[in-house]
Every structure is written in C-alpha cells, then in structure tokens.
Design a protein that fits this description.
homodimer; about 55% strand
C-alpha cells in the first residue's frame, strides 16, 4: 500500500465506509489494525440508540453540542470535549439544535462496522 | 470510578499526563484500556524526532499546518486531515510557521507514555 493511502480528511465524503447509524446520524468508518475511526455527523436533535459493545470507545466532539448518555448519566458536551466509554458500558447521544459532529474511536476495531450497513450493532 | 471521570477537554491543561516530546512539542496523555489519546501542542516550526514503535498510531490535525513525515515521504497536512501510521513505520512531524495541534491515538496504549517524562520513546 502506498503510504499516501493512509491520509484522509474529515470532510471528504468519498472516504471511509458509509454507515447509517440511526435517523439523522450517519458515519464514515476507517478501519485500522488495532483501532477504527468513525466520523459521525448528527442532524439537529438527532437521537441515537442506547447500546453497548465489548470494544473500548473514545469520542471527540468536533463541532456542535450534544448530550452524551453513558452509564446511566447524561453529560452535556460541546466542541473540544472528549470522553472514554469502557467496553460493555451502555451509551448513546442526543444532538443539540445545531447538530453535531463527533469523531469516535474504537479499539479493537468493531467487526460489524468493517462493512457498509445500518444500525449501531450490539453484542 | 465515577463516569464523570471519563470526560475531558482538549483545552484543559490540568488533565492528562504531561510529556515533553521534543523542544517546542508537548503533550497531555490519556491512557485507556485499549487505546491512548495524546493531545499534542507544537510551537511554530517545531520539529519532532524520527522514530517508530510497534503500536498503531492515528493522528488528527486539530489546528494549524504541518508536514507529516512517514515511511520516507513528506505529506503536507492541515486542520481536518488525519492519517494512520501502522506499527513499525518510522514517522515524525514538522510544524508550520503558526504551530499546530494534533490528536494522536495509540493502540494498544504505549507503556512508556503512561508515566510523565520526556522524549518520543522507541522500541
């Protein structure tokens, strides 16, 4: 593989594996060997589905505001905030009125996200 | 651990394990179970040290411009660009004249970065 193939951009709609996570929530997924990145776009007031998976997850709020639902708590988050979601912890997200963009990181990579599809997947 | 302890901010200087990577390049490190985040601040024209490690690495350009040196090539990068560095690949970075901020992701976590110190570490 040419090393140039390892360079991407958050705004390039032609890169990544497309996935519709929920109504108003879409993502582009970039699988690596040990970690997987997911560039998530949330429409205004879009709401995710409460779910969990064994893989560790980190989220980085790139734009907008949202409420992170995690381990039974609701935490307001805005651009610059980031968080860790240990494996097995139930979580979801609710976008603010301006929508949001979040970079999710999964480690190890989630198998179900390696192919295009829909939904959050669950264990 | 209270779930609130899993929430951080890119701009909070009191969070993370401090590390001086090189002259003009400092970071705050957040270790997880499967992945580790590193919020790197580069002074204008700061230059890293060419090195490699077994862990996979991803970099996300948060602010500024830089040249990513990876696998013998030099790739100009700016805010919004991101890249994957497979384990074992030599890499470094050279900040632009305005400096830069980069979010690095390591998986698995780098042991040497779990404690405060200096330098990039090498295998």
């Amino acid at each position: 593989m040419n090393s140039q193939d390892e360079f991407f951009n958050l705004d390039n709609p032609d890169q990544g594996i497309q996935r519709q996570l929920a109504e108003g929530i879409s993502t582009r997924i970039f699988p690596g060997d040990q970690a997987m990145l997911s560039v998530v776009t949330l429409a205004p007031d879009a709401v995710g589905t409460l779910h969990s998976h064994a893989e560790e997850q980190w989220g980085v709020m790139l734009e907008g505001e949202a409420v992170r639902i995690q381990d039974g708590k609701e935490v307001p988050v805005r651009a610059g905030d980031f968080w860790r979601t240990p494996g097995g912890i139930e979580h979801s997200v609710r976008a603010g009125p301006q929508g949001a963009r979040i970079l999710d990181i999964f480690s190890p990579p989630r198998e179900i996200y390696k192919t295009s599809g829909s939904g959050f997947g669950t264990d």
